[in-house]
Specification:
The structure is a single chain. This protein is mainly alpha-helical and 109 residues long. It contains four helices and no strands.
Amino acid sequence: MKITINGLVKVGTALAGVVLAATLLVIAVPARAGTDDFDAAGTYKAKCFACHGAKAEKKFDATIADADLEQAVLKGKKPEKPPNMPAFEERGITADQAKALITYMKSIK
């Protein structure tokens, strides 16, 4: 088996590329997004806007206790008639993120 400098350089470059790609992947994809980087406005527009409106003017009572609103976001709610509020805890929303959404909704109302 003949090892050349050129061959070693190619192997080293390929290995460095793999290590760099793996490092960037680990840095770019956190295990779970925390509340610090949670985009309440973006989440509202993506998941809540259709039912609650641009200014949270539909089906949202800001006078209800925050703890009860948080439970509605996490566990869902079935009113007397549809549409039902889905349970967003099942879709990855945490309690802290639910609080951030409620705070955002109150701020735009």
